[in-house]
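Check this:
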Amino acid sequence: MSSTVETVVSGDSENTLIRAEFPVNYAQFYLFDGNTYRTVHPEPKAPGLSNAGILRTVRGGAHFVTGLYLGNIDLTVSLHHHAPEPLLEEYEDVVEASFQTDLDPLAVIAWDSTKYIALPQLPSKAGWYRLRYHARNMDQAFDLRSTVIIDSFHLQIWPTPQSDAKVLQVVSDRARRKLSR
């Protein structure tokens, strides 16, 4: 049985910020639109895939890589009406990719699908969005199973036309290795 993850929500009419301790397994989690049966193929050359190393997207789905193998991460998701500034000073790794959704709402989903965060309605409902994924301490958490939060992540989402995946900043070995695949 799936259950929601306890979150702290704040914001205003232009931006919504959601924070949670989110469970990861196999160093990954997902974002899916209303059709949660979609999958994000892990191969770099899968049809329709946009690859930014630690972030991969297909229509209706996104795959995020963490450092921690098993446990909880500190996850922040922010929804914006316009492109926010990247948080380059606060995070080591920052990548982004386009994401197309046909169905609103979106949910952040754990690997085993037992836990999720239902996101509020998107600013433009269905259509093209940009996902900017920020990561901190992935090398320190790499391949660990921990009850202590080690790595943290911030996912920014906003409506914008489709564009190529971008690497804004990569410092960690974990993100560098994922880019080379």
Q: What stands out?
A: The helical segments are 138-141, 173-179. The two ends are 35 Å apart (CA to CA).
